[in-house]
Amino acid sequence: MKEYDCLVIGAGSAGMVAAGQAAAMGAKTAITEKWKLGGDCPNRACVPTKALLHSAKLYSQFQQAEKYGLKAENVSFDWTKVQEWKDKVVAERVSSESEANLKEQGVDLFWGQTSFQSDTEVKVGEEILKAKKIIICAGSQPAVFPIEGLDSIDFITSNEAVDLKNLPKSIIIVGAGAVGIEFSQIFSRFGVDVTVIEAAPHVIPAADKETAEALGGYLSNLGIKFYINAKVQKFEKDGNLKKAIVDLGEGQTQEFRAEEVLMATGRRPDFDGMNIEASGVQTEKRGIVVDEYLKTSKDHIYAAGDITGVMQFTHMATYQAIHAAY
């Protein structure tokens, strides 16, 4: 068994900051990670989607060059090279999220699934780690609603969408939140026929109505088809296509078909494999319950980032991490 003053679970946006902060204050610190250093934001969320959006926007502008008095004939794109560009951007961004950087800060890194054994001990691989203070920064995963037939159609989430090897000719996106809207723009600008289904009264449900409707109008002008106040009742395979049977309200039902389906229906706390019950901390559907100081129901356990369910943004995760480390 190895003992530490502070143990951070998850080396994402919150975890890397929390571990660095704790070590800088003189605490003997360890951090665990089951996937990649940096977490979702630089590897398969914020950074890669912005790179893809940038390429998509440039391609769209080239297509409209003539209205600016410019000539850009036979404009086309190579999706493989677009993905290579995106991967290069990601590699540059995550280069600072390294084992060497953690070592330089005095932080011990342990790879593998972290599982609570008690409120002071966790198991990572074959290692047992014990800590006086634990900060849970395990992040979130795409949340997928249980819709009839969904498991039969080989749908994708944002995790897969960002690394697609081939573009589909058409796609149905379920959910018009930030993730759904980002991917609707990327796919549409690259020529994919995009249909977006949203159960709320407008796109970006968390935004105010006026702003959301202005954005929805702009995106509709790009050729993206939006159906709001609409709920998918069932999915089915239809030959090589995937079919969604959608309740449009007021007794109307319509069928939509596409080559691909992207479920962009929010995020859920990533408790997978953590045996969170053994920690004794209070949880709820959106994540770990914390107070204004990021403290959980256990005085020595804190949480920061997406796993708290509080404003799931990278800048909020890093802000929380600094406070949780004190």
Automatic annotation (TrEMBL):
GO molecular function, one term: flavin adenine dinucleotide binding
Domain named FAD/NAD(P)-binding: residues: 4-321
Coiled-coil regions listed in the entry: none
GO biological process assignments: 2-oxoglutarate metabolic process
Pfam families: Pyr_redox_2
Family that this chain belongs to: Belongs to the class-I pyridine nucleotide-disulfide oxidoreductase family.
Keywords: NAD
Keyword DNA damage: no
Protein name as annotated: FAD/NAD(P)-binding domain-containing protein
Signal peptide: none
InterPro entries: Class-I_Pyr_Nuc-Dis_Oxidored, FAD/NAD-bd_sf, FAD/NAD-binding_dom
